[in-house]
Structures are given as structure tokens and as C-alpha cells.
Write a structure and sequence with these properties.
By secondary structure, the protein is mainly beta. It contains three helices and 20 strands. It has helices at 3-17, 286-290, 297-311, and strands at residues 27-29, 33-37, 51-56, 62-71, 76-77, 81-82, 86-91, 99-103, 112-113, 118-124, 137-145, 158-159, 163-167, 180-185, 188-198, 213-220, 223-230, 239-241, 245-250, 259-267. Bound molecules: 2-acetamido-2-deoxy-beta-D-glucopyranose (NAG) (4 copies). Residues 1-22 form the signal peptide.
Length: 312
């Protein structure tokens, strides 16, 4: 083994010895951006305690929470019926009134946005305090952003990653009356696939766009052309556009149904420009994240110094 090999080995061992600050379960976070993960992530989580994170950002800004990965017990049926282990996201501190979504399984939730400067994230395990099947939990990053980025449904309006999720507000609880939400999926060759769809009641007719409905458009240089309007309880087939896709969701004052949960894939100009783990100014951690190792800048510096010291 040469010096370089030894240095590399020590570096790798140090990386393993520093699996990030992710053993913490919940807490109060007040930085402009940061990362939250299930305890022991990316190792399986201990299913003994519920975790609550209270994220607050400077007044006038809102919290954008982007899920990198989730792996939670999907029983009995995701995404609608999370029953054993789940993530809940709350809009502000008033937990009773403001559940924005409940998620489990393996499909990351949409990038969620709070209405005000506080968001609460809960990782709930108590109903089934076991993790025999070794689910690994979740990793998400948050940052303070301007409120204008909201789709109107409590999640991000402009979607620029290769894959992502869209959902109506409060999924899988019912959406509210008078919703007017709009998402743009940037890129080309966009395919939208529905996993859950209950809009306006089982027998809803959405001709004439009078009831609750979802409308999908393809965008051409500042014009948009309607692909289709969807409602009822029949899941639409996959929808494809060659160019960017625009999705709109409207609800009236009548029936408020469960809503929809959909994922998309798109070809984007530069797939490395996906949301980063570090924040707006940071670089994506290409290979580190794919290997499942999360380190902070401080830890990296420490490790580099250590490696250098040993080499000298
Ligand atoms: C969360 O933080 C905010 C602001 O610091 C505080 O007002 C609120 O009471 C906290 N909520 C919980 C549940 O800890
Ligand atoms: C979040 O709360 C704000 C008020 O602080 C409200 O205007 C907004 O509609 C809420 N969003 C969702 C998705 O519940
Ligand atoms: C479009 O995307 C699909 C998968 O979503 C892929 O199979 C197909 O090759 C893509 N087409 C082009 C022209 O990139
Ligand atoms: C990740 O590793 C691959 C080869 O395994 C390399 O081509 C690529 O540049 C690396 N990406 C980053 C961001 O380091």
C-alpha cells in the first residue's frame, strides 16, 4: 500500500465514521437551509420514538422542503393509506388545522412549501414500533425561499428536475374549496403518471370545466394548448407532451375529494441542476449522495485535514 492508498483508506474510513448528524430525531431548526433525515439514515431507522422537526425561517420567507429519498413501510397501500409509519408535514404551528400531507412508501412527496415562516415535519412510528423489514427512512433538505414559488397547493410551482411529484393540497386528506393551483414541468419529453385520482366525486363530469378538475396543457413559446381535462375517480392514463407541461387544478365550493398524487419524468437540459443538499449556493453531492453517505462541509474539511496530517 502506498501513501496515497493509506490516505484514501483513512479518508474512506473517516467518511464511514462520520455518517452525518442524522442520528438526531427532531429538533428546532432556524438556519437558512439544512438537511433532515430519519435517525441513523441511510441505515434502517429505529422505530421507537416519533420525531418532530420545527423549521422556522426569517419572517417574509417561507420553508421549501425537498425530499431526496423516502423508504417507509408502505402498508397497507401507498400513497393514500399510510397506516404504520409515515411522514406528516404541517403548514405552521397549528397542528390541528394545518396538515399539508401524509406520506409513506417509496415515492418521494412533492417539494412542499409552508404558507408562513414555520413548517413542522413529523416522522411517526408509534403505531407500529418495529422496523423488521429494515426500511431506511428519509432524507430531505429545506431552505428559506420567497413565497411566490408556491403552486397554490402548498408545493413548488416550477419543476425542473428529471423526476418529481405533484399533488393536490393536503393529500391524502381532502383539498379545500376554491383551489387554483398551477405547476409547470420544465424540459422536454414529459410524462405524467397518476398514482391516485379522486377529483370532484366518483361520477363527476368535467366537460365545461364547471366542477373540480385537472387540466393539462403543452406549452409552446408562451402559448399553451390543452391536452385534456380530467375529473371523477378514474385514474387518467399517462399523459405525454413533447415540450414543457402545464398542469392546473381548480376546485369549486361543492364536493372536496381526496385529490391526486402524480409523478413525472422529463428530459431536462442539465440534470445536475437538481435541488442540492447544501442550498442555493452549494454544489450537488453527486457521488456522495448516490453512495448514501451524507457529510457536511465542516466534516469534509476536518477529514481532509486529518488525511493531510497523516500523509505528512
Ligand atoms: C416552533 O418554532 C416557533 C418559532 O420558533 C415557535 O413559535 C413554535 O412554538 C414552535 N413549535 C413547536 C411545536 O415547537
Ligand atoms: C398554509 O397556511 C397559510 C396561512 O398561513 C394559508 O394561506 C395557506 O393556504 C396554507 N396552505 C395549505 C396548503 O394549507
Ligand atoms: C422520452 O421518455 C421516455 C421515458 O419516459 C423514453 O423511453 C423515451 O426514449 C424518451 N424519448 C426521447 C426522444 O427522449
Ligand atoms: C461520479 O463518478 C463518476 C464515475 O464513477 C464520474 O464520471 C463523475 O464525474 C462523478 N461525479 C461527481 C459529481 O463527482
Amino acid at each position: 500500500m502506498g501513501v496515497a492508498d493509506i490516505t484514501l483508506t483513512i479518508l474512506l474510513l473517516s467518511l464511514l465514521a462520520y455518517p452525518a448528524t442524522s442520528t438526531e430525531c427532531g429538533g428546532s431548526l432556524t438556519a437558512q437551509h439544512g438537511v433532515i433525515t430519519s435517525p441513523d439514515y441511510p441505515a434502517p431507522y429505529p422505530a421507537d420514538t416519533d420525531c418532530t422537526w420545527n423549521i422556522s425561517v426569517p419572517q417574509g420567507q417561507v420553508v421549501l422542503l425537498t425530499f431526496d429519498r423516502i423508504d417507509l413501510n408502505p402498508f397497507p397501500d401507498t400513497p393514500e393509506k399510510c397506516y404504520l409509519h409515515m411522514i406528516e408535514v404541517y403548514n405552521g404551528t397549528d397542528e390541528a388545522a394545518n396538515l399539508m400531507g401524509r406520506f409513506c412508501g417509496q415515492t418521494p412527496p412533492p417539494a412542499m412549501m409552508s404558507g408562513g415562516d414555520v413548517m413542522i415535519v413529523k416522522f411517526l412510528l408509534n403505531r407500529w414500533p418495529r422496523n423488521d423489514e429494515l426500511f431506511t427512512g428519509f432524507s430531505a433538505s429545506y431552505k428559506a425561499v420567497r413565497p411566490e414559488l408556491n403552486s397554490g397547493c402548498g408545493n413548488l410551482a416550477l419543476l425542473t428536475s428529471q423526476t418529481g411529484t405533484l399533488a393536490s393540497a393536503n393529500f391524502p386528506s381532502s383539498y379545500s374549496s376554491g383551489a387554483a393551483c398551477k405547476w409547470e414541468i420544465a424540459g422536454t419529453n414529459v410524462t405524467l403518471s397518476f398514482h391516485s385520482f379522486q377529483v370532484g366525486g366518483p361520477f363527476s363530469q368535467c366537460s365545461g370545466n364547471t366542477n373540480d378538475y385537472l387540466a393539462v396543457y403543452e406549452e409552446f413559446s408562451n402559448r399553451k394548448s390543452l391536452i385534456g381535462t380530467y375529473c371523477g375517480w378514474n385514474k387518467p392514463d399517462d399523459i405525454h407532451t413533447d415540450g414543457p407541461m402545464i398542469v392546473e387544478f381548480m376546485s369549486d365550493e361543492a364536493v372536496n375529494d381526496m385529490g391526486f398524487f402524480a409523478t413525472y419524468t422529463a428530459t431536462v437540459p442539465d440534470p445536475t441542476e437538481r435541488p442540492t443538499m447544501i442550498g442555493e449556493e452549494g454544489r450537488p453531492w453527486g457521488n456522495e449522495t448516490s453512495a448514501g453517505v451524507h457529510v457536511t462541509l465542516g466534516e469534509l474539511t476536518l477529514i481532509s485535514c486529518l488525511a493531510l496530517a497523516i500523509k505528512l
